Amino acid sequence: MSDKTGVIVKIQRELFYVNDGKTVIPSKARGNFRNKKITPVVGDKVDIIVENDLGYIVNIHPRSVLLHRPEISNIDKCFVLSSIKSPNINLLLLDKYLLMIEKNGMDCVIVFNKSDLIDEKEREFYKNIYSNIGYKVIFNSNVDKNSNEILKNEFTNHISCVIGPSGAGKSSTLKKIFPNENFVSGEISNKTKRGKQTTRHIEIKMVAENTYVLDTPGFSSFDLKFIEDKSEIKDNFVEFRKNSNKCKFNNCNHINEPNCEIKRLVQEKVISESRYNNYLKIIEEYESIRRY
Ligand SMILES: Nc1nc2c(ncn2[C@@H]2O[C@H](COP(=O)(O)OP(=O)(O)OP(=O)(O)O)[C@@H](O)[C@H]2O)c(=O)[nH]1
Ligand SMILES: [Mg+2]
Ligand SMILES: [Zn+2]
Predict the structure, then answer these.
(1) Is ligand 1 within 6 A of the CB of residue 172?
(2) What is the pTM of this model?
(3) What is d(CA 128, CA 108) in angstroms, rounded to the nearest whole number?
(4) 10-residue stretch averages of pLDDT, the chain, 292 residues long
(5) Per CATH, which fold does 2-60 belong to?
(6) Whose CA is nearest to atom 2 of ligand 1?
(7) Which of 15, 135, 142, 274 is 20 to 30 A from 291, comparing alpha carbons?
(8) Rounded distance, CA 276 to CA 197, Å?
(9) Does the C-beta of 64 come closer than 6 Å to ligand 1?
């Protein structure tokens, strides 16, 4: 019997795989601990007791960040990866992801993947919306012979996750820049001919010294349960936050209020109409879930 501390790198078949820096120990959650109604998630730093090669989780360290969908903790950087074509980009989903990232105070990089499928004009259009408000935007194509070193460097010294819609190319991109890891991407398997493989389980992988990445399964929708108060929505639209001190009312929601600086900036095309419309949709969705 021994005591160890490590990180849960994956969860599979009711077992938590804890990496203590040397080995990975399959572990179970202790009964008394499960009664507290905290479920361990990937990313958790935990204390375990090891008996006969099986660990028992006895403590979870405080989490710096806890994300839902996928449920993961202690991640410090998020790569939001979407294709613009095939599948078509969903800017509402992208803006929801950004809201979640801002709320959790994480670093963020927006990756527009499959840049081989779009022209310069489309490129500029999407880049402008997000780089104008301060986001780092990187275009990537896995069709290119060389791996994208600019993108690769963004991972160094972080514990990152890659999120984005299914089929956008998250696993393909990780496989291309970290070729020694077995990220499973959606090629049709020749052996089974069973159609597309998608990412099912999530697992933190160490890809370089001090550098960890987590590939996640794509979701087509993303709910707003992580929002606790309506004001968090406007506060986490970065370009609204920056300009709202010029609104007439200091609790302005930027919807129906007179002399609203945000609405003025939308009209002047300084703030993107797409971002503003998605803000309104998110508010509407938030209010509709609150009614139940
Ligand atoms: N044209 C083009 N196709 C790509 C590119 N990157 C990935 N693909 C293709 O897009 C499809 C989906 O790729 P995946 O990497 O499985 O996508 P994913 O985001 O991991 O999907 P989920 O695991 O379902 O969430 C595959 O057929 C890839 O070959 C790219 O840069 N350009
Ligand atoms: Mg995948
Ligand atoms: Zn306002």
Answers:
(1) yes
(2) 0.91
(3) 16
(4) 89 91 91 73 94 93 88 94 97 96 96 98 98 98 94 97 95 94 64 60 87 88 88 97 96 97 97 98 93 62
(5) OB fold (Dihydrolipoamide Acetyltransferase, E2P) (2.40.50)
(6) 114
(7) 274
(8) 36
(9) no
